[in-house]
Amino acid sequence: MGKFFRTIFLVDLFQGLWVTFRNQNPKYIYTEQYPAERPEVAERYRGAPRLNINPDNGETLCIACNLCALACPETLIVVGSERNEQTRRKELTTFTYDLSRCMFCGLCEDACPVDALELTQDFELASYTRDGAIWDRQMLEEGPKPTQYKC
Amino acid sequence: MADEPKPEGGAAEPGKPAAETPKAAPPKPAAAAAGGHTPPKPPAPMASTPWEGEIPGQLKERFGDQIRECAAYLGQNFLAAKPDAVIPILEFLKLEADFDYLVDITAVDYPKRAERFDLIYILYSFARNERLRLKTMIADGAQPPTAVNVHVGANWLEREVFDMFGIQFAGHPDMRRILMPEEWEGFPLRKEMSIIQQDDRWVKENLGIESGQ
Amino acid sequence: MPDATFLDTTELVLNMGPQHPSTHGVLRVILKLDGEKVMGTECVIGYLHRGVEKIGENRTYQQFAPYVDRMDYVAAVSNGLGYCLAVEKLLNIEAPARAQVTRIILTELNRIASHLLWLGTHALDIGAITPVFYCFREREEVLKIFENYCGARLTTHAFRIGGLQYELYDGFEEQVKAFCDMFLPKVDEYEELLTNNRIWVARLKGVGILSGDECKEFGVTGPVLRAAGVKWDLRRAQPYSGYEQYDFEIPTGENGDTYDRYMVRMQEMRQSVRIIRQAVDKIPTGPIGKTPKVIKPATGEVYVSIEAPKGELGYFVVSDNSTQPYRVRVRPPSFVNLQALDRMVRGGLVADVVAIIGTLDIVLGEVDR
Ligand code: SF4
Ligand code: SF4
């Protein structure tokens, strides 16, 4: 009998629909409207690399110790340095970072003794050419400049 | 099939033990690190301790000098045996000592050693909650007998060992490559294969491009 | 075998995959069919082979850690834990207590994430489309915790040999607790959708039976083994990383069919929440451990295995007293479990193959390594 009424009044159907409607609560929306809305990534996000510069004098923090290059499993970092005869210190000349092979594991960042190399929150790394994925020192210091879309 | 020409085709295990007895002197197989990419160092302090108990006792009684060593390293028991004894030992362990779960079969390549490969069987016993490693040394080209008749699960594991090291298992029902393409030449986990070495010919024939390396 | 009829019947060979939506990756199964009935199968794998073990021989111990994440990429944290434990064992060190508890929380969260992905895709294979959206929604919360903790969502590289790299962030406990509170009712909701669903039951009950003895024969572990009634979980049998301090149950099934495996995994998610709740309440203070500067274990070899979401994940590491492993062997649960596929589908219907591949919960990245 109960079964009969359940069928007549479509109880099962409404039960099912209730589940559907319950899940239409806007707080369950996870889809990000990406170019229009930029997602917030975590503070520790390991994205595009950056070579930090000292904000006071604009010089690079990197001491050209080569530790990041040694730490990297993919050996994709090449540090070029030159010995400065006056200060008798190594100075950074070039720094190449091949993003196309990077797996953003963070080992280079951990290895850096002066926090010069850092993986930042920038995540837009696409480029039109393969060469575009190889970043030089200037690019690393300035960071990527992704196009921002407005809707 | 991409078999490497074997020095001596199917010749056999009977020949093996003879070749091996003089070698039995250095008892710790892993200590023979001479095959590594480092020059032989003074052996590091080995925490390997003899393993005594019910199972080694039974095994020694049963298999006598076929068992080379029963030891434990960092609390993990292992057993070194001669290649011929492996299958009987596996059988014995399965039927009489409850080691009914074959966890893994793998090999290690020591190119500088006369018996080039360490073949390793990892076993587990549900009833005892114990793990055990059975090791044996085999030469390049030797054909150890398959364990499929004892543990069905050995099938793919042995195929993988063959694929990676080129160790043919005698009596295996389906000795083919499993992970690498059939036409691939060489055995990737042998030490002479370098990591950047590619099969250029294969790339060219199958993908129609020049290999980037 | 088919009865002789006046119609001549021949065996039909059907290729399933490598690009088939329900093979969860690039698995190719060659099916030999007699009508709807599966007479035999052959799996062709290796499409995703990247030579992880070979890479391991050419990297230092520390450098190899990010690569293991890429084997079972839906449970990267478990892979990392297994590897770190293996090297720690080889070095004969142990991570500090704080690191261990954190590891357990993250690994259990990862187990939930892995099971959620399994549930969603498995249900999708069978024809229930809704669960996949719900599962991904909840999985997103787990991935957010990972992202906050270590900065990556999927291939996390969360643990380091000897401990952790990252200190817990502010609000970690609250976020994890909030997730647990949110998640348990959701599991009930999935069950509401599926457990008594007539189609679901009809498609799963009695399909792909693998008995406990067969599991042991093939070396099948994880939820598949437990669904066959074998109460065996490495977290209990050989506890690692402090699992012995937690109170949890090992769910088991009875029949070893696809439905039981489903139930076991659902229960496992609840048990994971239980473990996480206990762990979050007692995160000790103290150091989180530091990677030794030079990792150069003494000559020797160890095999360490953990209970990954898919079964026993083992690492066999051989050291020759240098900074690089002499050999790393990964014992992948998916690879070994997949071997039992033939036994499970033989004699069944071709439509059930999809259900059985789904229920084995394989990840081809791990099968092929
Ligand atoms: S993130 Fe990892 S792979 Fe990328 S450069 Fe740094 S160490 Fe190398
Ligand atoms: S580790 Fe840091 S300081 Fe050293 S070379 Fe790399 S970026 Fe420069």
Structure characterization notes:
With 151 residues, chain A is an alpha+beta fold. Chain A has a domain at 49-142: Alpha-Beta Plaits (2-Layer Sandwich), CATH 3.30.70. Chain A has helices spanning 2-8, 11-22, 67-71, 107-111, 137-142; strands spanning 49-51, 77-84, 89-98, 117-119, 134-135. Chain A has a three-stranded antiparallel β-sheet. Chain A has a two-stranded antiparallel ribbon with strand order 1-4. The longest helix of chain A is centred in the first third of the chain and has 12 residues, at 11-22. Chain A is elongated, with a radius of gyration of 26 Å. Chain B has two domains: 52-179, NADH:ubiquinone oxidoreductase Nqo5 subunit (Beta Polymerase, domain 2, 2-Layer Sandwich), CATH 3.30.460.80; 186-213, no CATH class. Chain B is elongated and about 60 Å long. Chain B has five helices and six strands; from the N terminus they run αβαββαβββαα. Chain B is α+β, with helices and mostly antiparallel strands and 213 residues long. Chain C has 369 residues and is α+β, with helices and mostly antiparallel strands. In chain C, 48% of the residues lie in helices and 13% in strands. Chains in contact: A-C, B-C. Chains B and C meet through β4 and α4 of B and α1, α8, β6, β7 and β8 of C. The complex binds iron/sulfur cluster (SF4) (2 copies). The site of one iron/sulfur cluster (SF4) has 13 residues of chain A, from α4. One iron/sulfur cluster binds next to α4 of chain A.
